[in-house]
Structures are given as structure tokens and as C-alpha cells.
Design a protein that fits this description.
Layout (H helix, E strand, L loop, with lengths): L3 E3 L27 H11 L2 E5 L14 E5 L6 H19 L2
Antiparallel strand pairs: 1-3, 2-3
Helix pairs in contact: 1-2
Length: 97
């Protein structure tokens, strides 16, 4: 089984599509963290692992970390990213209330 990797840049509203964002602007959040991504994955039902000392290939000088999604062969990577983005946004809305 191949694990899928999710970088915070995929969900970052500060980035353009060319800069690495993979979700629509209405789902993106400002400066997402690997911890938020992991919480969202747990809510969706995936097991995951945070890898702190990793950088996104388009910004190798910034160690943002990444999240490894385990046993996710039943879903497409883009579907997982879209669901994570929605949950991260919901998590932030709950915390801001």
C-alpha cells in the first residue's frame, strides 16, 4: 500500500494554485499546521503520522512538515485533501466561536 502525503501548502490560502495550493480559495485557510491536518484526518477516519522535519518541494528552505496518511488506498488523494480542507476550516470556525 502506498501512503499519501499532505503538505500544509496544499491548504494555504496565502498560496496560489501555481504556488502549491490544491483546494479552492473558499476551502483554503491561512497558514494551516500539520497538527490541524492530522486532527481533520482523524475526524474523517484515517490514521496518520506527522513528519516534522520535512519541507515542501516548492519551498525546500522552509520546514513546514507533512502528514503521512496511512492505508488510504481506497480514496483518491484529491478527495482526501478536499475533505481535510473542509474539516480544517470547520475546526478553525469552532475554535473562533
Amino acid at each position: 500500500m502506498v501512503d499519501k502525503l499532505i503538505y500544509p501548502a496544499y491548504l494555504d490560502s496565502q498560496k496560489t494554485r501555481a504556488g502549491g495550493r490544491r483546494v479552492p480559495e473558499n476551502l483554503a485557510v491561512e497558514s494551516p499546521t500539520v497538527e490541524e491536518i492530522e486532527r481533520a484526518l482523524k475526524k474523517i477516519g484515517y490514521s496518520s503520522e506527522i513528519e516534522q522535519r520535512k519541507s515542501y518541494s516548492r519551498q525546500p528552505w522552509i520546514m513546514t512538515g507533512r502528514v503521512r496518511v496511512k492505508n488510504s488506498s481506497d480514496s483518491a488523494k484529491n478527495d482526501i485533501i478536499q475533505a481535510v480542507a473542509a474539516y480544517v476550516k470547520a475546526i478553525r470556525n469552532e475554535e473562533n466561536r
